[in-house]
Design a protein that fits this description.
The structure is a homodimer of 269-residue chains. Chain A has ten helices and eight strands. Chain A has 269 residues and is an alpha/beta fold. Chains A and B meet through helix 1, strand 2, helix 4, helix 5 and helix 6 of A and helix 1, strand 2, helix 4, helix 5 and helix 6 of B. Chains A, B: Belongs to the pyruvate, phosphate/water dikinase regulatory protein family. PSRP subfamily.
Chain lengths: 269, 269
C-alpha cells in the first residue's frame, strides 16, 4: 500500500484533513502517517530520510502533504523522493493578490491555544460534562442548546463534539419512559423549549447499541426500542421541537446539522 | 469585515479547515460563515443569492472555499460574485496523473459514519467518559493510554479529544496529595506503567484555573499549586514517565504530542 505523509511544524491537522480529503476522492487505499512538530532542520532531514526509505521499500513515491512556516524546512521536505504538495502556498499567492496584503506566516496560528475561541471551547467541554445526561438542570439557563432523546440516541458524543470543536455549551437530557407516558415535556425543560433539539434513531440500531450495554434486557429489546422511538418522535412533533435521525450520521454530521438548523454561531477561530 | 464562506454538500469541515488555515496566513480579520449540506440546485442558488447580497453589502467580494461532489452545484457557486476556490480539484488533477486512476467522488466520504474508524471513535468516547478521573480502574487493561496529573492539569479535555478525533482509548487518573506524599505511584497504576503519560502545568496557570472552580480555597492557592506541580514532576522523573507541560498548548497540540511520543496509531480513517 502506498504511503501518504502529513507533515508540519505544528499539529499537522490541516495537512491531515486536506490530504485525506483529496486522496479519498480516489478508490485507492493508503497507509496514512502523520508527523507533527517538525521544527528543526535536523528533524526535517530525519523525516526526509524516512520518506526516502519508504519510497525505496514500497517501490513508489509516497505522497507528502506539508505546511511549514520556515522556508528552509519546506525545501528539505520538497527535496525528498516523494510527490510533495505545499498545498497552502498555492492559494496563499492567489489570496495575496486579491487582498493586496502580504502573508505573515506565524508558528502555531491554527489549532493552538492562541485562537480566540480556545477558552470558550474548554469551558464548553467542562459544561458538557457537568450537564451530561440531565446531570445539573440548574445550569440550563447557560446552555446554548439542550439535546434531548431516549437513552443511547447519540446525545453525549454530540454534546462533546459541539463543545470541543465549536465552543457550544450543549447540555443533554434523557427522555425516560415516565416522560413518554405522561406525553408532556419534563418540567425542568419547559422554560427552555426554544433551546431544545431532539435526536432520534432507528429502533433496530438503538436495540443493537443498547444490547451491547445491557444484553438481553427489556431496555435493549426491539419492542421497547420501537415504543420509545415512536413516542419520542410524537413528543417532538407535539411540542414542535426540531429533531434529526442520527442513525446513518456521524457526530460531525449531526453537529453540523444542529448548528445550521438552530442558527448557532460557531465559536471556532 | 470581509466575509469568508465555507460551503459543501457535506459537513463543510474540510472547506473550513483548509480555508481558515489559508486565510490565517494573512494579518486580516474575516467574518467566517460555514454552510453545510448544500445538496440541491435550489439550495445552491439560495446560497449564491446570499453571497451576492454579502458582496453588495460589504462592497467587496467574499472569499468562498467550496467542495461539491455534484458538478452542477459547483458551477452555481462559482458563478456567484465572489473569489471562489474549488480547492480540492486543483490537487485531484495532479494526483490523478500521478496515480493513473480516475477520481470517483462520492457523497459524504469524509467525516461520515462510513469511515472505518467511526465505531472505534464512539467506543473510545464512551470509554473516556467511563474512565474519567480514575472512575473505573478495572478497565485500565483496555486503555491505549492513561493520562496522569494533578487536578485540573488538562487530562479530561485531552482524553476526550484523543477519543473523538482519533479513536484512542484514553483513561485518566488524578494524582492526589496522598500519592505525592508517599512518593510512589498509586498501586492501581503499577501494572500499567508503560501506558502512563504525565501532564504538568505552570503553577500560576493551575492556580488561576482552580480559582475559577473553587475561589480562595487551599486547593487553588499558589503555594499548594507550586507544591503539587513540583512533586508531580519529581514523581514523573523518578518513575521515568514521559510528560508534557500543557500550559501554553491546546488540546490539539497536547494530543498530537502524546500520539507521536507514545507511538500510538491514530484510528482516524
Amino acid at each position: 500500500m502506498r504511503t501518504a505523509f502529513y507533515i508540519s511544524d505544528g499539529t499537522a491537522i490541516t495537512s491531515e484533513v486536506f490530504g485525506h480529503a483529496t486522496l479519498s476522492l480516489f478508490p485507492v487505499d493508503f497507509n496514512h502517517k502523520t508527523i507533527p512538530f517538525v521544527e528543526t532542520e535536523e528533524k526535517a532531514n530525519e523525516i526526509k530520510a524516512l520518506i526516502n526509505a519508504t519510497a525505496a521499500k514500497e517501490g513508489e513515491k509516497p505522497f507528502v502533504f506539508f505546511t511549514f512556516v520556515n522556508h528552509n524546512l519546506s525545501e528539505i521536505i520538497k527535496s525528498a523522493d516523494a510527490v510533495a504538495y505545499d498545498f497552502l502556498s498555492t492559494y496563499s499567492e492567489k489570496i495575496q493578490k486579491e487582498l493586496d496584503v502580504a502573508p505573515v506566516p506565524k508558528m502555531h496560528r491554527t489549532h493552538s491555544i492562541h485562537e480566540k475561541s480556545y477558552d470558550f471551547r474548554i469551558d464548553a467541554v467542562n459544561y458538557a460534562l457537568m450537564n451530561d445526561d440531565g446531570g445539573n438542570i440548574k445550569n440550563f439557563s447557560e446552555a446554548d442548546i439542550i439535546l434531548v432523546g431516549v437513552s443511547r440516541s447519540g446525545k453525549t458524543p454530540t454534546s462533546l463534539y459541539l463543545a470541543l470543536q465549536y465552543g457550544i455549551k450543549a447540555a443533554n437530557y434523557p427522555i425516560t419512559e415516565d416522560d413518554l407516558e405522561s406525553e408532556g415535556l419534563p418540567k425542568c425543560l419547559l422554560p427552555y423549549k426554544h433551546k431544545l433539539f431532539g435526536l432520534t434513531i432507528d429502533p433496530e440500531r438503538l436495540a443493537a447499541i443498547r444490547h451491547r450495554r445491557m444484553a438481553n434486557s427489556k431496555y435493549a429489546s426491539i419492542r421497547q426500542c420501537r415504543i420509545e422511538v415512536r413516542e419520542v418522535e410524537m413528543l417532538y412533533k407535539r411540542h414542535k421541537i426540531s429533531y434529526f435521525n442520527s442513525t446513518h450520521h456521524s457526530v460531525e454530521e449531526i453537529s453540523a446539522k444542529i448548528l445550521i438548523d438552530s442558527n448557532l454561531e460557531r465559536r471556532k477561530y
